[in-house]
């Protein structure tokens, strides 16, 4: 082999080696990119291409070798495939034949199948239609049922039906038109129900408002019955205490029987409950609560407007009963309404009513002119208070109004009693009251505890007082009763001191002042003044009864007012008025005595002979005094009789002394002195007899009636004395002439002129005595003149 061939062979071997490397890398899946990059970098890509071609050829050779290895099996497979193709053609022809036959048979069945499927579809649609129709029928039935309930005003079942529709049927209504109609109608139906229910509530409000007056009157009537039973029990206890009888408390062992509730108190709140429940179902419960509260508040304000067309005293019962009924209803609504009202709302309504009632009462009380009317209104207001207190309402302000009007009431009451007292005094006969039977004695004497003895007198009984006394006592007793009635059931519990204050004020400012006005009027006679003095003495004694009676009515133990320090001030003032009546009586008696004893005119001061039987006037004076003392002994206390007697006799003594001192009497003689001495003796005898026969002698041992005329007696004794100059003897004067005044004696003695001597007067012994007496008198005159 030449070198060129060998080199090519070496090259080829070398290349073949590289090709194998490359083929191995390709077979292994290695990355040949570095070789490709290196070949192009080296500038010898041809070699790389050649290597790649070598790899391709090698792979082709492998493929050919593999194909050769499996060719026979392929031929066999092809032959089998051809056999299968022939079988397939035969099978195809058979299949086409069978298909043709099947198509012929199946076309009929296909038609039947289509008919069956259509039937199934119709059946499904019918079933759904029936179901939808049933649903619609059920919905329509509920709608009809709802309409029936509404037409029959059965709103709650109607709402339940609507609620059932909304919850269970509305989502399943297949008919959209029906669904839209129902959805549109439900709000209007609810609104209609709400309006109808509100209309029913309004009708109920009108009806319950008209019933409130009857409800209030019934409740107040019950309170009045309870109060009457309590008062009857207290009266029974009071009478038992008066009789000192121990009685068992009826309430302690009484069977409590509940009274059957009056039909008026069984007012029906069902419409209100129903409306409240329906509004709850509608979801507007709070709105209805506010609606009810506002409308009832408007009704309350309307009820609180008092009509001016009718006098208050004629309309107050209806007005107050309406308010009581209103709040009784609201109390029941509060307790049973399930939150329809809250306590604050009821409290607001009560405060509104209370403010207007108290304001109205203040105005009406200020306008009232009658204590009776004021008492009637007060009693009804306290019944209102006691009724509403049972339901928990605060009535303190109401009682305060009544308490503030207490002075006004007692002022009106005092004026009415003053008028009655004036009528009693004006119509009084001022004659001793003649009581003909024991019932009259009990009514006019014992009932006022003004009897002078516990022994029942014989009838007819001549009382020491006139008919004015029991009549005045009845007026005072009625004043006490009216005062207690007003103060009872008020803000004060222990009100005896208040009653006592008003009683004392009434006795002082009305009874006592009226008596004083009568005493000082100057239009009464001696007999009237004496009877008035006797009446005042009895009234003074009756003050203790008035105080006890007030205590009994106030349920105060009588023993607490029987203490000396508990006496009324009026009793002291009545005693003063009694003394004033004695002064008036004495003034009238003295005036009458002045009429009888014009001694300056009726006595012959220079008589030639004395009158042994006294002057004519003294008989009239004694007769008058006898009548005066007899009457005084019958109707006046002994101390009053003594005052009248001593006053009259002192005045007679002053008249006698005054006659001697009168400027009209220029002179008098011994005969005139002797005549007056005889008059004085007759008067002294009469007064001594009257003094001891009346029992005054046992009381006034040191001051008899006779001693009241001591000045006149000592003056007459002095003028009749044979030695008048002894008057200047201190011892004799202190013993016999202590009542005489120097100046008066001097003035009188100057007028004393003894009578002139008669024929043959100088021959008698008497003349000697007269001369001695005259000398003594002249000596007295001289000494008195010197003394002065």
TrEMBL record:
GO process annotations (BP): acceptance of pollen; pollen germination; pollen tube growth; vesicle tethering involved in exocytosis
InterPro entries assigned to the protein according to its UniProt record, in alphabetical order: EXOC6/Sec15, EXOC6/Sec15_C, EXOC6/Sec15_C_dom1, EXOC6_Sec15_N, EXOC6PINT-1/Sec15/Tip20_C_dom2
Exocyst complex component EXOC6/Sec15 N-terminal domain segment(s): 51-220
Record-level GO cellular component terms: cytosol; exocyst
Keywords, sorted A to Z: Coiled coil, Cytoplasm, Exocytosis, Transport
Exocyst complex subunit EXOC6/Sec15 C-terminal domain boundaries: 397-751
Cell compartment(s), UniProt: Cytoplasm, Cytosol
Protein origin, superkingdom: Eukaryota
Major site of localization recorded for this protein: cytoplasm
Regions that span the bilayer: none
Gene3D superfamilies (UniProt xref): Dsl1p vesicle tethering complex, Tip20p subunit, domain D, Exocyst complex subunit Sec15 C-terminal domain, N-terminal subdomain
Protein role: Component of the exocyst complex involved in the docking of exocytic vesicles with fusion sites on the plasma membrane during regulated or polarized secretion. Involved in polarized cell growth and organ morphogenesis. During cytokinesis, involved in cell plate initiation, cell plate maturation and formation of new primary cell wall.
Family membership noted in the UniProt record: Belongs to the SEC15 family.
Name used for this protein in its record: Exocyst complex component
UniProt lineage: Eukaryota, Viridiplantae, Streptophyta, Embryophyta, Tracheophyta
């Amino acid at each position: 082999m030449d070198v060129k061939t060998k080199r090519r062979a070496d090259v080829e071997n070398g290349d073949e080696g590289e090709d194998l490397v490359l083929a191995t890398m390709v077979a292994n899946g290695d990355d040949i990119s570095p070789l490709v990059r290196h070949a192009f970098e080296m500038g010898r890509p041809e070699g790389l291409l050649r290597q790649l071609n070598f790899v391709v050829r090698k792979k082709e050779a492998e493929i050919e070798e593999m194909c050769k290895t499996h060719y026979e099996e392929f031929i066999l497979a092809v032959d089998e495939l051809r056999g299968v193709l022939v079988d397939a053609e035969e099978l195809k022809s058979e299949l086409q034949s069978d298909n043709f036959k099947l198509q012929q048979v199946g076309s009929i069945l296909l038609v039947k199948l289509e008919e069956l499927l259509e039937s199934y579809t119709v059946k499904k649609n019918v079933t759904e239609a029936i179901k939808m129709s049933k649903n619609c029928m059920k919905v329509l039935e509920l709608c009809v049922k709802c309409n029936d309930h509404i037409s029959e005003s059965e709103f709650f079942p109607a709402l339940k039906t609507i609620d059932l529709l909304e919850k269970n049927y509305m989502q399943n209504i297949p008919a959209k038109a029906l669904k839209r109609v129902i959805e549109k109608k439900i709000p209007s139906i609810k609104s209609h129900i709400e309006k109808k229910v509100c209309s029913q509530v309004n009708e109920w409000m009108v009806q319950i408002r008209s019933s409130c007056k009857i409800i209030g009157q019934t409740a107040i009537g019950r309170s009045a019955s309870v109060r009457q039973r309590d008062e009857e029990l207290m009266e029974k206890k009071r009478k038992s205490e008066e009789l000192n009888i121990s009685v068992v408390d009826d309430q302690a062992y009484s069977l409590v029987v509940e009274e059957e509730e009056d039909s008026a108190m069984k007012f029906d709140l069902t419409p209100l409950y129903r409306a409240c429940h329906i509004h709850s179902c509608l979801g507007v419960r709070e709105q209805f609560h506010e609606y009810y509260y506002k409308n009832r508040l408007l009704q309350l304000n309307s009820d609180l407007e008092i009509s001016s067309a009718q006098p208050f005293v004629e309309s107050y019962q209806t007005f107050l009963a309406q308010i009581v009924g209103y709040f009784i209803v609201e109390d029941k609504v509060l307790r049973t309404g399930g939150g329809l009202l809250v306590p604050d709302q009821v409290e607001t309504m009560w405060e509104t009513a209370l403010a207007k009632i108290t304001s109205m009462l203040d105005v009406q009380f200020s306008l009232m002119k009658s204590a009776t009317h004021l008492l009637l209104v007060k009693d009804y207001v306290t019944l209102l208070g006691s009724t509403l207190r049972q339901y928990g309402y605060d009535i303190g302000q109401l009682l305060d109004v009544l308490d503030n009007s207490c002075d006004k009431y007692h002022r009106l009451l005092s004026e009415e009693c003053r008028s009655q007292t004036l009528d009693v005094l004006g119509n009084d006969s001022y004659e001793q009251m003649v009581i003909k039977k024991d019932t009259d004695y009990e009514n006019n004497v014992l009932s006022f505890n003004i009897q002078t003895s516990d022994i029942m007198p014989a009838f007819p009984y001549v009382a020491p007082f006139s008919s004015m006394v029991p009549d005045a006592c009845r007026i005072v007793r009625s004043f006490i009763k009216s005062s207690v009635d007003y103060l009872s059931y008020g803000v004060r519990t222990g009100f005896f001191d208040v009653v006592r204050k008003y009683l004392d004020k009434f006795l002082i400012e009305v009874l006592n002042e009226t008596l004083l006005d009568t005493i000082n009027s100057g239009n009464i006679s001696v007999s009237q003044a004496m009877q008035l003095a006797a009446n005042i003495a009895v009234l003074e004694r009756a003050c203790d009864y008035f105080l006890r009676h007030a205590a009994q009515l106030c349920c105060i133990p009588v023993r607490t007012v029987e203490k000396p320090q508990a006496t009324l001030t009026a009793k002291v003032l009545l005693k003063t008025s009694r003394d004033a009546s004695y002064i008036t009586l004495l003034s009238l008696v003295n005036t009458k005595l002045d009429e009888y004893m014009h001694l300056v005119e009726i006595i012959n001061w220079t008589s030639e002979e004395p009158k042994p039987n006294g002057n004519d006037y003294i008989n009239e004076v004694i007769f008058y005094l006898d009548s005066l003392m007899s009457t005084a002994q019958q109707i006046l206390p002994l101390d009053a009789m003594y005052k009248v007697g001593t006053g009259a006799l002192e005045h007679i003594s002053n008249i006698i002394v005054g006659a001697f001192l009168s400027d009209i009497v220029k002179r008098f003689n011994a005969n005139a002195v002797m005549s007056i001495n005889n008059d004085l003796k007759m008067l002294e005898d009469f007064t001594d007899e009257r003094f001891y026969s009346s029992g005054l002698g046992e009381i006034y041992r040191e001051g008899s009636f006779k001693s009241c005329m001591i000045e006149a007696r000592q003056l007459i004794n002095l003028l009749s004395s044979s030695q008048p100059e002894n008057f200047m003897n201190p011892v004799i004067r202190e013993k016999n002439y202590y009542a005489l005044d120097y100046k008066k004696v001097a003035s009188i003695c100057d007028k004393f002129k003894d009578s002139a001597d008669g024929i043959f007067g100088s021959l008698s012994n008497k003349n000697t005595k007269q001369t001695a007496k005259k000398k003594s008198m002249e000596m007295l005159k001289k000494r008195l003149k010197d003394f002065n």
